[in-house]
# Entry
Amino acid sequence: MPQFHLPVEIGPADRSRFQWLIAQMDAHITYTVFPAPVLTMLGIEPAWSQVFQIVGGGQKEVQFAEIRVRLEGQERTTVCVFGDIGSRPALGRHALEAFGLVADEASETLVVARLKLG
# Structure
């Protein structure tokens, strides 16, 4: 799937402030990723960590927090990974699904998902 970029606002769960960023829409990753320095600047602190297996071998401990994301006129809470310095801002499947959106490859836009219950 081609990946494309859109403006988003992110902030702490208490909604005290927000920052505009350009984020890659990436349905190949599960969680949203923003560089740790950006999250720290917004007053967002890690809430938990988890160890992941790295492709090719090894493990890496990753820190997480819940953040607020504003996208296309809507706002949701989503899980966010504290990315390395210089990591690319990206919205993953978890965030896109929280908004009820999917990426439309042809138009490089987000469209309303056909949601299923049960």
Observations:
- Residues 31 and 70 are 16 Å apart (CA to CA).
- The helical segments are 36-41, 93-98.
- The first strand starts at residue 4 and ends at 12.
